[in-house]
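Quick start: read one record
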Amino acid sequence: MPHDLTSAPKTDPLNIYRYRDSLYAVDLITAALSFDFFAWLTAHPSSAEGICGHFGFKERPVDVMLTLFAANGWVRNDSGVFHATETAEEHLTAGSVWDLRPYYASLHERPIARDFIEVLKTDKPAGWSGDKAAFDWHKAMEQEDFARKFTAAMDCRGRYLAQALAKKLGLGGRSCLLDIGAGSGIYACSIAAQHTHLKAIVFDQSPVDRIAAKLIAERGCAERVSVAAGNMFDGLPQGCDVHLFSNVLHDWGVPEVKELLAVSHAALPAGGLLIIHDAIINAEKTGPLHVAEYSCLLMHSTQGKCHSTGEYAALLDEAGFTPGEYHDTAVARGFMTAARR
């Protein structure tokens, strides 16, 4: 029997998700300590631009780094100028009896920590899981074996997260949802299961479309959830009044996010609904800590990061949408909605 996509687990898997989500945060901390970052910041409170200029770092990785440090209470942002906090001065700088930097020194040669030094300087993603010989992540998804394994990983993650999203969405009066960059189709299937008046289209590139079609059929959802193949940057299928980007925009930098929002705007009718479901940083860029940790993984291996509610609101408005509020779902994820003007 297919799994009931409206059922919930009896136990909370938060920490199981978090170990994987936060895996690379320690390596980014270790990389920053190799530059004696907090000692310099204590003596030279600075803007993000000043930090980039002094260390030769790039904007995107520095944004992720500072967000992680702010979420931990190690830096504070005073009107755009970052200061080391008392915690950082006491435990992460030389001269204090409580200095813990040597505790991290033995980690400096970890491959991911070394990767982060290069990412900070170049803004170029490292190989997936630190594999220097690996394809670019997006190119790797065109390879059958990698696409199958990665789609399976995202599918098992999505079984819990998708229904948490589906149960919080208000989709009355909507008729068709387009799940963009949909992977296995778990989100489209879960939303269709929860909102039985709705049909859905799963949209992804080859070979993911074939993998998704098989999984959708196995779930018994093929009658209401169909599959279309294509490159989301080249245009989207017409005829849907809801678009969903679930765990997609975090893989891309701001220029690509702008492109994707423009493509969505062009395909949606006036009044159409856009849903961004993701791990999203708060407007102040001080957390949540779980999301700040996850952003380190994304910054290492993709062109993206966890974007903030403020960043999304500005990008949505610029693209011709009226942004709505942010809503939590589960495991430090949540969603924002926006109406196409």
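The first strand starts at residue 75 and ends at 78.
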